[in-house]
Amino acid sequence: MVFSSPATVYGQLEKIPCVEDFELKIELQYLHEYARISSSIGLTAKPIVNFSSVLGTNVLTLGIDISFDTKVWNFTKCNTGLSFTNADLIAFLAFHVVMNEKGDSVNASYYHIVNPLTNIVVGVEVTHRFSSNVNIVTMGTQHALDPLTTIKAPVNNADKASTLIQYEWRPKSLFTNFREVDTKSIDKSPKVKLALTLKP
């Protein structure tokens, strides 16, 4: 998604592309000082068409992200978001609709920079799913142990607590260690994910 919230301090690992994720597509972008428009289409017989747009300034931003699957001739995703950024805080409100899951949700988050020197950040995120009428509240913090190492620790009311340690061993190349535990089942082994991101 082109329009993504910088308020995600909760240690969610992004999906790492691998061989089976390979997809050939054409993407067109228009960049302006106050706008970005991007559109892509897969080079297959029945491609997925994506469109995203972000409008705004470094203070207030509005964005939309839409996907259309020509195989089923239907929209598969529609996300909108609004963010407000100040010197030491970021507030973000997003509305997500995942068509193929028949589910929709609204998401609000608040991200506050406590100490810019050590990158200490606290954040809270609230997600409401209309289809299941469930609210998930996540609180998290982030701290830079040194200029190359960052630790993040979120916990939510769905009994999940996790830690993420990220080490930038060379510019833009990261080693990430993610652990998640179910607080209702402490006796079970935690989920562990390791990721290596390489960028030239």
Blueprint of the fold:
Elements: E1 25-32, E2 35-42, E3 48-56, E4 60-69, E5 74-85, E6 89-98, E7 103-115, E8 120-129, E9 134-146, E10 149-156, E11 160-170, E12 173-182, E13 191-197
Antiparallel strand pairs: 1-2, 2-3, 3-4, 4-5, 5-6, 6-7, 7-8, 8-9, 9-10, 10-11, 11-12, 12-13
Pfam families: Porin_3
Family: Belongs to the eukaryotic mitochondrial porin (TC 1.B.8.1) family.
GO cellular component, one term: mitochondrial outer membrane
Descriptive labels:
voltage-gated monoatomic anion channel activity; Porin; 200 residues; globular; 0% helix; Porin_Euk/Tom40; Porin_dom_sf; Porin_Euk; mainly beta
| Order of strands in the sheet with most strands | 1-2-3-4-5-6-7-8-9-10-11-12-13
The percent range for strand residues is: over 45%
CATH class: Mainly Beta
CATH architecture: Beta Barrel
Structure, explained:
Belongs to the eukaryotic mitochondrial porin (TC 1.B.8.1) family. Pfam families: Porin_3. One of its GO terms (cellular component) is mitochondrial outer membrane. The protein is an all-beta fold. The protein has one domain (19-197): Porin. 0% of the residues lie in helices and 64% in strands. Strands 1-2-3-4-5-6-7-8-9-10-11-12-13 form a 13-stranded antiparallel beta sheet, with no helix packed on it. The model is unreliable at 1-21 (pLDDT under 50).
